């Protein structure tokens, strides 16, 4: 009777009431790890139009730059997939806080080393190792936040955790916008500061202990061999199989469309700034017979105009990135609240349908028809809200699908196996000539596939985590 009364009293509290100081500390440390996690990934996005041309010794719009950038994206996603699964399993076996320290040290070290890259292939390889730590950190932190928080707060807290990623993107955008003033090798400084997150590991070591649920799971594993922690094969057995298929499918759709669509929201204001640069230098926006220029001559004049207006073009790109990210942050932050109202499945359907519509609006209507900078600036946050916001659902939903002894393994596998599909897409795009906007349009229908996947998903809203 007393347990029932206590549960009823707890359910009447708002999500932020009754949260202990330690629970807030877990959220803060997990979120900071995720902020730096995202910075390490997005600093490449912010600097790829500077770093790769410098490593290749060509201009930014050279086709080789796009090919090597796509290979770097693919390598990053492949590394994230492997690291996410490996470190997710490790967190189930040796503990959440211990594994979090390892993953943060991993991505900090290799991001810093990237500052010394001397060739494009070195960049590709180093992005793989950075991503191993990045993918692992998310698996560990999402499981830990879910296990530490009460049921009434879990969805909102997990959304806050995932939404903190926007600060990492904004830090990368700021670095991309301002370090350019440091000279030709400015992009290297953005990677060099990637060593700073390593300091966070000291705080983790001193402040965090393992969640009680994980401790109990380890005790059960010691007494019963059938309850062993971190066994990958169990993700494909019994009821876990459906959850794993649904989780991997949702993550694949969200990550493919993120890297192939959402990030190119930064092209919205970039294209306008490039057009203004061409007009200022009296270079035609497109080449035709009337210009009297050969393909090579037009390309040279175009590049000269872009070089002369390099700073405003870069800042327009970073402003697009910032507006897109701000909207995405709101979408991430509100996913938990929306999923508590509509259920996990209802929230996923809403975000997927709206994201499909916004992809068409942005890339087929607005950018393609040279919409005004004002219209684009107003649309970017809405675009970001839905195309990025659904990702908080992975932090909310995936830990709810598995028992404690498999939580890090399962959440890490679902989220990071989605990177394999994305890696395959980018290696494919790297082999063909296609514009960023067309990539996005080709991928947009995947959001509708996501709606179909959701109908096969398990509803977990309002339920306690499985022991």
TrEMBL record:
It is a multi-pass membrane protein. It is found in: Membrane. One of its GO terms (molecular function) is carboxylic acid transmembrane transporter activity. GO terms for cellular component: plasma membrane. The chain crosses the membrane at residues 24-45, 71-89, 101-118, 124-148, 160-180, 186-208, 318-336, 348-368, 374-398, 410-434, 440-457. Keywords: Membrane, Transmembrane, Transmembrane helix. Residues 26-462 form the Major facilitator superfamily (MFS) profile domain. The keyword Metal-binding does not apply. PANTHER family: CARBOXYLIC ACID TRANSPORTER PROTEIN HOMOLOG. This is Sialic acid transporter. The gene is nanT.
């Amino acid at each position: 009777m007393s347990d029932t009364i206590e549960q009823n009293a707890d359910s009447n509290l708002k999500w932020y009431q009754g949260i202990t100081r330690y629970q807030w500390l877990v959220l803060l440390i997990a979120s900071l790890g995720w902020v730096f996690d995202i910075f390490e990934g997005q600093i490449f996005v912010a600097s790829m139009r500077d770093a790769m041309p410098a490593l290749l010794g060509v201009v930014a719009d050279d086709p080789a730059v796009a090919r090597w950038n796509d290979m770097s994206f693919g390598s990053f996603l492949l590394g994230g997939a492997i690291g996410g699964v490996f470190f997710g399993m490790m967190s189930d076996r040796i503990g959440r806080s211990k594994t979090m320290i390892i993953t943060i040290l991993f991505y900090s070290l290799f991001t810093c080393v990237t500052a010394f890259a001397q060739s494009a292939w070195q960049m590709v390889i180093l992005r793989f190792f950075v991503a191993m730590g990045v993918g692992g950190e998310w698996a560990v932190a999402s499981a830990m936040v879910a296990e530490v928080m009460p049921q009434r707060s879990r969805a909102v807290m997990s959304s806050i955790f995932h939404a903190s990623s926007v600060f990492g993107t904004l830090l990368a955008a700021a670095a991309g916008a301002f370090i350019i003033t440091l000279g030709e090798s400015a992009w290297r400084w953005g990677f060099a500061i990637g060593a700073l997150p390593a300091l966070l590991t000291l705080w983790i070591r001193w402040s965090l202990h393992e969640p009680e649920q994980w401790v109990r799971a380890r005790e059960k594993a010691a007494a019963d061999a059938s309850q062993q922690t971190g066994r990958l094969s169990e993700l494909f057995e019994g009821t876990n199989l459906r959850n794993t298929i649904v989780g991997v499918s949702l993550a694949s759709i969200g990550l493919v469309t993120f890297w192939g669509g959402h990030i190119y929201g930064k092209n919205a204001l970039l294209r306008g700034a490039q057009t203004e640069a061409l007009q200022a230098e009296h270079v035609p926006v497109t080449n035709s017979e009337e210009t009297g220029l050969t393909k090579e001559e037009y390309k040279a004049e175009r590049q000269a105009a872009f070089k002369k207006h390099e700073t405003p073009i870069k800042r327009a790109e970073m402003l697009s990135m910032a507006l897109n990210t701000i909207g995405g942050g709101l979408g991430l932050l509100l996913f938990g609240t929306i999923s508590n109202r509509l259920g996990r499945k209802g929230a996923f359907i809403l975000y997927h349908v709206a994201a499909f519509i916004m992809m068409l609006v942005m890339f087929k209507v607005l950018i393609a028809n040279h919409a005004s900078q004002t219209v684009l600036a107003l649309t970017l946050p809405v675009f970001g809200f839905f195309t990025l916001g659904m990702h908080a659902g992975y932090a909310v939903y995936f830990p709810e699908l598995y028992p404690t002894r498999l939580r890090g393994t399962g959440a890490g596998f679902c989220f990071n196996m989605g990177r394999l599909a994305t890696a395959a897409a980018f290696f494919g795009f790297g082999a063909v000539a296609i514009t960023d906007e067309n990539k996005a349009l080709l991928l947009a229908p995947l959001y509708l596939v996501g709606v179909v996947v959701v109908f096969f998903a398990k509803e977990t809203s309002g339920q306690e985590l499985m022991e």
